[in-house]
Structures are given as C-alpha cells and as structure tokens.
Write a structure and sequence with these properties.
By secondary structure, this protein is mainly α. It is about 55% helix and about 5% strand. The protein has 28 helices and twelve strands. The strands form four sheets. It has a six-stranded mixed β-sheet with strand order 1-6-2-5-4-3. A two-stranded antiparallel ribbon has the order 7-8. The termini are far apart.
Length: about 800
Amino acid sequence: MDELGTLLRPLRVRAGLTQEELAARSGVSISTIRRLETGKSRDHRLSTLNLLADALDVGPGDRRRLTAGLTKTGGGDAAGIPVDSETATDAKTPVPAGTSVHVEPPGVRPQVREEIIAAADALGNEVRRRWRQEVEQRRIHDPFPLPVRWHPAPPALTDRPETVQRLPPGAPPRPMDLTSREGSVAEVYQRIPSGRLVILGRAGSGKSVLTGRFVLDHLAARTPADRVPVVFSVGSWDPTAVALRDWLVDRLVRDHPHLTASAPGGSNLAVALIDADLILPVLDGFDEIAEGLRRVALETLNTTSMPLILTSRQAEFTEAVQDVGAPLVWAAGIRLAELTLDDLAAYLPLTARPAARRTGPGEEPVGGGRTEDGSVWDGVLAELLAYRDAHRDPAQVPLAVVLRTPLMISLARTMYSEASRRNPAELLDTERFPDVSALEEHLLAGFVPSVYRRPVAERAPGRRSPGQGPAPEHAERWLGYLAHHLARLGREQQDLAWWQIGASLPLATRILTVVAASALCVFVPELLVCLVLLPQALGETLLLAGLTGPITGLAFGCVFCVVTAFGREPFEPARARLRLPGTARRPGRGTGRTFAARFGTSLLGGFLVGPGCACTLTLDHWLYYGQPMADAAVLKDTLIDMLAFGLIFGLGAGLVFGLLATLETPLDIASAATPTRLLASNRMTVGRQILVLAPALALTIGAGGQLVVDLLQPLFGPMAWGAGSALVYGVVGGVGGALAYALSFTAWGQWLVLCRVWLPLTGRLPWNTAAFLDDAYSRGVLRQTGAVYQFRHVRLQHHLDRSFREQQVHHEAAAFRTAPVEQTA
C-alpha cells in the first residue's frame, strides 16, 4: 500500500463510511476507491482526491496531506503537469482556468505515460482530419452553415443542478448558462463541471452535424493529455450482451486498427486510452438503440462516471427516463430549436445555382436554380412569409412545418436547387401533399433519383469521370437492398460494413459458395500439376482433379460450418498487416500466445481436410483401378490415410499459420481512415498472406509428410509416399490451400466471392460494389463513420428499405398472376 492508501483509508474509517457509501457520496467509482486504498491505482487525478476529500468533509490539514501524498508520487505541478483550476487551491502554483490534465500515477515510468499521451495526440489528429473531410463532404459550409440554436432541456430530463456541478452536500448550485449564443456547443460543454451533456432534438434537427462541430471545436482547443472526443454510433450497442467499456474498445479498434498495438501493462492502446480517461465518448443516436434495450442502456450509463455526450430524439429519451425513473446522472441537457422562416429566406435562395434559361417572357424557369431576376425559391418563400405576416399560423401550411429541420431543407435543396426541371412551387400544392407526412415522403422519395440524375464531380485523379454512374432506378434498387440488409440485422442498425454485406445471403448460399470456390481453388492447381508431371495419364489426371476439388471443397465447407457455429462470422477484416522478415516488429500480443492460438485453430482446420483427400484416393482406386471399396483392407487403408493426411495437413497448416502470426503488426494509423482504404489494406494483406502461405504450405506439407509417414509406418506398416507424392501434395496443398483459405476465411475473400460475384450475378448489387458505395458517398447518399458507411439519415434508410420491400411484394404478386397463364400456355 502506498502513502495515498495509508492516508485515505483511515479518513474513510474515521468518517464511518464504507467504500460503497463513499462512492455514492463522492461520485467516484468503487473500483477507483479500492485501487487508491490498496495502492494499485495507476490512473488518478488531483480532482478525484478533492472529490473524496469533500465527501469525507476533511479539514485543511488532511486535505494538504492528501495533496502532498500525491505530489510525492510525481503528480500535480511538482511533476511539471498543470492541474484543474478549480482544484488548484492546494497547489503551489495557480494555473489558467479550463486546464485539465492527467496526474502521473505512482510507480510508472515517465516514458510509459508519454507513450499513451502520444497515442491520444495521434488519435486526436486523425479524428480531426476525418471530421474535416466529412464536413466538406456534407457541404455544411455551402453557402454557409445553417444556424443551430438550442435551449436548456426540460428539468425532468436532466439531473439536479448541484449534482451536475459536483457540489458537496448542502452547497447551493451556481447559475449555469446553457443557452446558445455566438459561441459553440464546445464552449457550453466547458461550463458543465460533470462533463456530461444530453443533446435532444427531433429527427433531422441536426444532432449529428452538431456533434461533428463539437468534435472539431473541442479538438481545436485541446491541449496535450486532454480527452479526445470520439463519436460512437451507439445504436448498435446491446447493453445486455456487451459492457460499455468493451463496446467502446471494440469500436475504437474497428475504426482505428493501429490501436491494437501493445500498451504498457499488457493491454492494447485502445484499452489504455479508455482506462486512462483520455477518450470523451460522444454517443450519437441513443434513440436508435433497440426499443427494448433503451431502459437497460440508460441504467448502464447511470452506473458509470465517465464524462460523455449523448444525443437522442426527445420522445425516445423521455420514455427511457420514465422507465428508469431517473435521468442520466450528472447530466445537463439542451434541446435543439427548430429553424425559422427567416432562416429559410436567408439560406435557400443562395443554394440555387444560376438557371440556364427561361422558357419565355413571364414563364417559370425550366428547372431549379437562380434566374437573372432572383431565385426559384422566391415565390415559395414569399407565400410562406405572407402567412406569417398576416398573423396566420404557418403551421397550417405543411411545407412550413416540414422545412424546419436541416434534413428536410437539405433534401429540398437537392431536389429543387440543384436538380433540373423541378419547380419548388409544387411543394405548396395541398391537394397533392395534404399533410406533413405526404410532403416528407415526397422529399425522401425524390432524393436518390435527383442525386443520380446529376453528375458527381471528380474528386481525385484516376477516379471515375463526371457523368458516369448508375441509372437512378438501378441505384435506388441497389441502395434499397443494402437498406433491407441493415433492417434484417436490426431495425435501428445503421453501420453498413463492407465485410457484413455478404451476410445478407442465407447461410446455405454462403456455404455453397465456399464449397464451390474451394473446389475450384484446388481443382485448377491439381489439374495443372498432374498434366505437367503425369501427361501420359490424362484420364486419371482429370479424375483425380475432378474428385479432389469437390471433396476438398466439401471439407472446407464443413470447416466453414464449424467456424460459423461458434459465432465467428461474418469474418471481420484483419486488424494487422504482414511485415517483411527482418524488420522490426511493432509491439503486439505476446508472440508465444499468438502462435499457440493460431496453431490450434489451423491444426483443427487442416485435420478436417485430411479425410477428404483420403476418400479421394479410395474413390480414384475404385473408379480407375476397380479396387473394391467394401474390402476390409481397403477400409483399413482408408482410415490410415485419413489419419496420415489429417496429421500432414493439420500440422503443416498449424505451423505455417502460427509462424505467419508472428509476422503480423498493427495497421498504420491511416489504414482504416475510410472503408475504401480498409478494403484496400485487407486486399493487400490477403495478397501477402497468399504469397507467404503458398510456398510455406507446399514446403511444410511436402517435407513434413515424409516425417509423418516415417512415424506412422512402424505402427501401420509400409505407406505409399515418395518424392512424387510429396511434390504433388505439396504444390496442390500449398497453392490450393492458400487460395481456398483466402476466399473462404478472410473478410476480403468473402467480399470478393459474395459481393463481387454472387450478388451481382443475381442482380442485387452492381459488379463493382466498392465503387458504387464510394460513388454513393460522393453524392451524399451515404456518409462515413470510421471504417463503415451509414445512410445520410436513418429516415432515408427506412424509406429505401420500405420501398424495396414494396417492390419485392409487387414483383412476387406479378409473378403469381402470370404463373397460371404460363402454365396454361
């Protein structure tokens, strides 16, 4: 126990408090208190000790002793690290307001702490770069950002002011201004001592855009060792299955694979950053959590003390608060305000591009845009403003209600300001659009056709030229299939991961593709090898290749079934790349444990392939030489061959894949900056794996086969295994096995087989799916969140899913109606 523990525990005992009672009174977690008292804490702050001192109601002398104890361990200003201004009363040197930096834990080497801080700084730079790109892609600043205003949330949805301000018992709360002014939401967040904020708003009100602005503004003012804000789409979190900390770590590693690198203490960098309190989770989309899980999610968040920001639609969050009986603890809240008609009048005319011509004197413009006399929005805006100026309720006009959120304004801009031959005056037609729902559906339905009727600007050399792109009806059908795929994963699932698209197919179909791909990978190399080595036996060569391919494919299909039975599919992209032999290995998991884990899995897989090869020989001897299969000696030889081939392929695969794992190193920081880069990185990784696996497996199977035969012959008698057998099985096993593994058990291989071949063959996706997704992102239909895509808004996703299902029902009904006619004919 260190000096802090010897000071803290007597103070708690003297106050007559248990650790649980002290945690409830101070707001510090029980685990932190236990680590402090036992001297095992590796990550505590001066502000934490001040909270404990306030809860224990200690005097100035005891408080100074606690502070001095921390200073002796290397924390506070004595270590050259500034502390928070509100807790600096016991420090020797005051610090500027707003400074909040981690305290160096006792007994930790300075370079260890510096390594974690360096990782946080690198992560912050990468997050800033990504969000800048996303803001540009969403054209938020064109022509200028729509104003986002907010008001304090209803008191029933926030915690008590004294709790939010982390005041000791009996202390009166201070005024805390959370209203929107000229500053940003990042400035408002700095006024919240607890570091917890809930952002509420209706669908499409700009919550996600506001979080992006917060991230950029917060990072602009960030100092070393401050928290890095990272946006997490919380809708995919299942709090009943995964702890919040584990889910955050998993998402960090998915979007930033370089964080799998080893950190001091044995964990990886993602775990270290979370445990060091260097990540500020921005949990976007609480309302998108499955309806039955929101209450559990809020209860789970209430058991944590980490600073965070949570966004949600107000109705769903209110329901969760009522179910729990309490709001998010320590959390302040703001509610986004709707846009006004004055906002529309200032914004929409500037979005219209110059129109090419008029149809004639006094006639309306041909398409959306700006004429020499003004904007095509002038007439619409004039009528809406006339309702307001006449003191009539603009809400009686559906368009005035619809155009109160940034989402609907963006859809209207796309359809009428940027598209040709569309006049926004039709939006005022109350017979065609009698209510808000009809008008919103019209805007949602017209968005995709509009963006695919106009060319997308070329973004980089070598990319597709302007004007190229799928027809609107094809794009809408393919996007509908992807939206339906997400709906099958979960109603509120938004993460469109390229490695999960293949899972939209039934399991039986995926197993069939694995069998076919594996059979082809083995058939072709064996056919070529046998033709070269045994040109005189063409018939037997074709028979051997024709039998070995399908049987090996069935064996790979069985292994695929075993893997999927343990819940390891769909296969996730590799979070590591292969380094060249002789280069320095970046820190990672222990080499011995990595080798053992990979060896065991590969040993099982290779052993399951062995019986297929043994059965192939038996069938060949039966069909080509007439050897009876029912003979006892033949059955005995077949069983011996099963064991021998199982050991040959199992041990060979185990050794090769185990050694291959020692060449893996975490991906570079920019490798997963986008889904496209992650796909390219995995394609390169799989290519390198094939180049290493093929010769390594060939050599191991060829040379190791003789060793296995020498060990088994004293037990089972002479076995046929010569130089020719070693060469054939080595080359076929190496090349065919490497290719079959790559196509069957890697994320990129499954993507290639299912998304580049099978789904395009059946018309459900285009032939170049990756280019289509990137093109949809360029057109603003999709957005990027780390390593995955998401639809521009969940409402657009639901609309496309609903339209796709309606089309499927229509096609099935049409096929049913024509079936009797065809049968009669």
